[in-house]
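Encode chain A's predicted structure.
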Amino acid sequence: MKTVAVLLLIIMLLPLSGCWDSVELDQLALVLLLGIDTDPMGDGFEVTVHVLNVAGGTASGAAGTG
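Encoded structure for chain A:
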């Protein structure tokens, strides 16, 4: 009976986790490409990152009516 009560309590607490710490998509930096190369001098690595700007601009493409 005690395990059933604990299990029921856990199930009841799951919906309370909610989204209070959620981050909107326009506040994130989405990495599209990541390149890791050896340094030409030979002492390390060179990291190249291509980041998508989600907040800026409008959607590109064409929309048609059918």
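Strands lie at 30-38, 45-52.
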